[in-house]
Amino acid sequence: MKKGKVFGKHQVVLALMIMALGAAVWLNMKFSSNEKYMGEATFVSSSNGETSGEAVQTSAKVEDDADYFETAKRDRQKALDEAQELVEETLKSANATDAEREAALKTTSAIAARIEKANNIETLLKAKGFEKAVVVIGEDDVSVVVKSEGITTAQTLQIQDIVTAQTEIPLSNIKIVTIK
Fold first, then answer.
1. In this model, does residue 163 exceed pLDDT 60?
2. Is 3 in a helix, a strand, or coil?
3. Dihedral of alpha carbons 134, 138, 140, 141, sign
4. Pairwise pLDDT comparison (153 vs 101), residue with the higher score
C-alpha cells in the first residue's frame, strides 16, 4: 500500500454497493405499486407552503396487502444479504488491507444495527395495534408502511415517537405510508 493512499479499490466498491443498496430500497418503496390512484395522498405542510418538520402521511391501495408486506420484507432481506456478502468477500480477500477490513467490519455492524432497529420498530408498531408494518431505514431517513384504513393524529404521533426513540432520526425525515 502506498503512503498517503486513503481509499483502495475495495473501499470504493464497498461504498458503491452500499449506495446501490440504499437506492434499491428507496426505489422499491417508491415504485412498489404498479397502479396509481389520484387524490389518495395526504401531505402535511404549513400554510405558507414550506414543510412543517412533521412526518408526511400518505396512503395507497394495494390489491393483496399480505403479498405486499411479505414481498417488501423479502426484498429488504435480499438487499441486505447481498450487501453482507460483499462485506464478507472483502473480509476474506487476501489482498484486503487492515483499513479495508476495518471499514468492512464497520459496515457489517451498521447493517446489523439497521436490521435490529427496523425489527424493533415493526414489533413495537404491532404492539400498538398495527397488524402489519414494514420499516425501511436509510442513512438519514425512515419510511414506515403500515396497514390501516387511515391513521389518526394520535397514531401518527405514536409511530413518530417509536421511530425517533429507536433511530434518533428527526421528525422531518420520517415518512409514514398507509396501505388499505
1. yes
2. coil
3. negative
4. 153
Closest to 29 (Cα-Cα) out of 64, 54, 62: 62
Are 139 and 20 in contact by the 8 Å Cβ rule? The answer is no
Assigned architecture for domain 9-179: Orthogonal Bundle (1.10)
DSSP 39-61: T-------TTSS--SSPEEEEE-
Rounded Cα–Cα distance for residues 155 and 176 (Å):
11
What does the alpha-carbon distance between residue 137 and residue 98 come to, in Å, rounded to a whole number?
A: 29
List pLDDT tens digits, range 54-78: 555 554 454 454 578 888 888 888 8
Every domain of the chain and the residues it spans: 9-179
Q: Which three cell numbers stand for residue 49?
A: 407552503
Say how far apart CA 38 and CA 43 lie, in whole Å.
13
